[in-house]
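Deliverable D4.2, example record:
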Amino acid sequence: MPIRLASSGSKIGLQAQLLDAAPIPETLVDLRSSQRVKQLHLTRIRTFIRNLLIERALTGELGFHFVAPAEMAHINLRFLGHQGSTDVITFDHGSTSTRLHGECFICLTDTLQQAEAFGRPWPEELARYLIHGILHLQGFDDLEPAARRAMKQEENRLVRWAQGSHDLGLFEKSGLK
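Output generated by the structure prediction step:
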C-alpha cells in the first residue's frame, strides 16, 4: 500500500495517509470450549490462529469449538453420516481465497489420543488440527490421495513454522491439568 508522508510547514509532525487502499477487513476468531480434559488458554490459541492467518495473508470470521467425544460423535453423525467421534471437522460458510468464513470442531480427547499414538506433545497435535481446519477453509481437500499428499505437505510445513514461531506448550493454562 502506498503511503504519503506530508509535513505541515516548519512543524516536525508527519501525517501518513493511505492512498488507493481498500479498508482492511477485521478478523474475528471466536473460541469455545465445552470439553473438560484440558484447561485451554484460549487467548494464546486465538493469538496463534491470528498469526497463522497473517502468515497465510488471510482474514476471516472463524469459530473454533473444542468439544468432548459425545458432542463430536453427534456432529459427525448428523452432518457427515459417520459413527463415532473424530479429531477435527470443518464447516465452510462461504470462504474466498483471501477471507475465510467457517467453523472448526476439535475433539480434545481425540487430540490427546492421536498425540500419544504419534509420540508428539498434545499442543503440537492441537496446532496441527487448527492448521488442518484453516487449510480446509482455503480449499485444500484430503479425500483423494494426491490432494491428501498436497494438504499434508502444507500442513507439515505450517506445523514446522508453528514450532519455530510459537511456544505451543502455552496452549494449556499453567498449573491446571
